[in-house]
């Protein structure tokens, strides 16, 4: 039994060593690795700085300069619309996958909920004013305000609701070397 296990270990190690040597010239796992990463990276300083400026310009008027949301945001307006919720830990932005957050900001609530006529959304779409990369930067800035627990929870939500390829920035703009 021990010999079988040892032989198996040697095969696995040999396989890894070959894969490593191979990766130096050609990296077939690169696309897979990129797919594991969120395009909105709360550790990426440049992305967060760009996102902060865009947030101040496009989002703060409704969602608050410090991501705090509208006053009494949990009470709906009289016409049945929602008030802008906070984007920090106290809200529910972190409940949603990257896919949902990206669609919410790019398409707006009306488009997102077009099959749910009961939901009257007051969240505008920014697809005409922000590029996809800019939307990811705003989301990176929002994520940077979250605690570890909320980040982990949102990462899990994203894992179970995968991002379509066309929502991803090109592989070259991810900062992963060719
Ligand atoms: C005109 C006011 C307004 C502006 C400007 C605005 N939002 Fe919103 N947003 C809302 C409202 C109201 C909601 C509540 C949900 C709804 O009505 O669909 C919302 C909801 C959201 C949600 C969903 C949150 C959740 O937990 O369900 C996200 C994400 C979001 N906004 C991001 C943004 C970002 C990013 C910007 C700036 C690019 C922005 N919003 C600008 C009004 C606004």
Question: What's this model, at a glance?
Answer:
This protein is mainly α and 178 residues long. 49% of the residues lie in helices and 0% in strands.
Please supply descriptive tags for the structure shown above:
Cytochrome Bc1 Complex, Chain D, domain 2, 178 residues, mainly alpha, binds heme C, elongated, single chain
Q: Which H/E pattern describes the elements?
A: HHHHHHHH
CATH architecture tag of the largest domain:
Orthogonal Bundle
Mean pLDDT: 87
How large a portion of the residues is in β-strands, by DSSP E?
under 5%
The separation of the N and C termini measures 43 Å
Helix content: 40-55%
Shape: elongated
CATH superfamily annotation of the largest domain? Cytochrome c-like domain
Strand-pairing-aware structural class: mainly alpha
The largest pleated sheet is described as: none
Instruction: Give the low-confidence spans.
Output: none
Present as ligands are: heme C
The number of distinct structural domains comes to: 2
**Using DSSP, what is the number of strands?**
0
CATH class category of the largest domain: Mainly Alpha
């Amino acid at each position: 039994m021990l010999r079988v296990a040892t032989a198996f270990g040697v095969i696995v190690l040999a396989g890894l060593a070959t894969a490593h040597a191979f990766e130096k010239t050609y990296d077939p796992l690169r696309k897979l690795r990129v797919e594991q990463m969120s395009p909105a990276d709360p550790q990426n300083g440049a992305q967060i700085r760009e996102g902060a400026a865009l947030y101040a310009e496009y989002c703060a008027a409704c969602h608050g300069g410090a991501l705090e949301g509208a006053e009494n945001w949990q009470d709906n307006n009289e016409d049945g619309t929602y008030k802008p919720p906070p984007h920090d830990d106290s809200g529910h932005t972190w409940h949603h996958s990257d896919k949902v957050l990206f669609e919410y900001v790019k398409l707006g609530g009306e488009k997102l909920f077009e099959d749910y006529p009961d939901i009257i959304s007051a969240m505008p779409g920014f697809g005409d004013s922000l590029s996809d990369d800019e939307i990811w930067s705003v989301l990176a800035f929002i994520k940077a305000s979250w605690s570890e627990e909320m980040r982990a929870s949102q990462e899990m939500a994203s894992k179970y609701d995968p991002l379509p390829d066309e929502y991803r920035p090109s592989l070259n703009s991810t900062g992963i070397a060719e």
